[in-house]
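ok trying this again, last paste got cut off
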Amino acid sequence: MADSVSTREPGSRRFDLNPAHSLAAGAMWLIIALAVTFSTAAAVWVGRIARKDVIEQHVRRLSLETDQLSSDLGQALASRLGAVRAARFKLGDIAAANQRRSLSDVFDELLSVYPELDWVAVADSNGVIVRSARALPAGTSVASRDWFTAGLRGPWLGVIEAPGQPDDALQGDLAAPLQDKSGRVIGVIAAHLRQPREVIHPLRLTDESNPAGSTQAYVIDRAGVVLIGADGTRGKPWNGVALSGGTPALQFERLPDGRQVLVSRAPLRAAGGVPALDWRVLLCEPIGRVYQRADALAQRILWVALCLGAATAVLGTIGALQLTRRLKRLTLSVAAVGRGGGTAIDVPPGKDEVARLGRAFANILDDLQRERAELETLSGELERRVAFRTREVERLAQESRHAAIVRERLKIARDLHDTLAHSMMAMLSEIRFLRKLQSYDPAALPEELAHAEEVAHEGLKEARNAIIQMRASTVHEMGLGPGLAAAFDHFIDRTGLAGDFTTEPEAASFGDDRAETLLRMAHEALRNIERHARATRATVRLRMTDPSHLELSIEDNGIGFDPSASSSGHYGIVGLREQAELIGAALRIDSRHNAGTRVTVSLPLSPIPFAPRT
């Protein structure tokens, strides 16, 4: 999507989903992100609170249900024990021979008076069933049964028979001794207990059904042995291991089979001596059922919050599009003007920021158009002036070329003066001397002719060197430092003088047209040392006196001269001054008789008008 968006033309009327290209898209994505973030956060937060409240209600419901079941069961026990105690007044004092008949009469009377008690059986003191209802046929011996032996001593609670029983009822049996008025035990009567658990009960705080295998009810004794409960658990100790938190009366436990359950305990409260037996009612419910309703509620809250967040995002997106519609129209208008497709900006009506921005753009466009017209006028005038100046530059260039030619001629004249003129003068002197020698000493003539020939060869050599120096220079390629070093080495080799050459790296790299002029001035100064100074030592130093000035110093220990005296026919010092003036350098000559000579050239490195050689 991002690739396709990035290839759209500016000002496109299609909605751009890339926030980098569209303010409306950026606002839309911001609203969506905020709506999703806050709705999810609110859903999680509220869901946790609701989940916690539902779990607490569920736990409280199980505790109340346990208390209610304990109370109902206690009332059932109390009613049965009360009926048994009432029977002792009917029995009175009976003889042993009339025991079975009296027990049978008591059983019949209790069934007629208390039909809801659902009596099971009555046995005599020997453990033989006298009468029964829907269980234990008459004449059956139960002397070895736990309920009979325990019932002879006092109230007993457990299961005599284990018929299939619904899961919504707590079923068991009560056995109690039958005594006459004297307190003698003449038999044991067993009463069936069935305490139904209503599907909808005010104390359960829920209208959920109780499916099979969800909440299970037990009755345990003080040792934790199950008296009444599901098959396979009766007569066994309750082995639940308490998990973290909770109280002994209400806590989460892990059963031996690995199941985790919520367990609620309540003492069996009833009159007639039942509390002394310390029986307890126990309800356990799987932990998944405890969290089921809470998780479902939290999930519903999450979906509702997400739906509300989605609705908020949609409405916010529509609002953002409406709010940015005028800004988008202004953007399209400005983009059209920028591409040259329009001459005016469509200013939105109103007094808000978009309208003010549109008016500002319109004013800027008017100013630009006015300035463009003025620039076009100035451009025409500038072109006319440029044409005039071009002709002037061409004329000045022609004059500059002429001046360059003149300077080259002067240079050639100086070089010829320093080479051919000196050689010719020496040869002229030799010729004059030969003419006189021929008249006075003809024998010495061959030796002087050889000396004249040597002078001619030396002049020819110097002329060739001057021509080579005019044709080639390494200053531009290598810098002034290497060129001076080569010239100084050649000077030392030719003259045999002692000397020192020093240069700084920054000064040695200087290599524009002015450097070539400095090199020619150094050649001229070294030639003057060789021919006139009668020196034994020469020193050349090239350095930077400051970041903007280059200094060339050439010094000897010769006989010196007077720099202020004029020498007709000798152009060496004049040439040095002309060349220094040509490149804008300052020339200084310090010399005294028998104290040597120092030539110092100081060159500013800032560009100056200089016509290159042709």
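PB: full thing came through this time. The CA atoms of residues 71 and 446 lie 163 Å apart.
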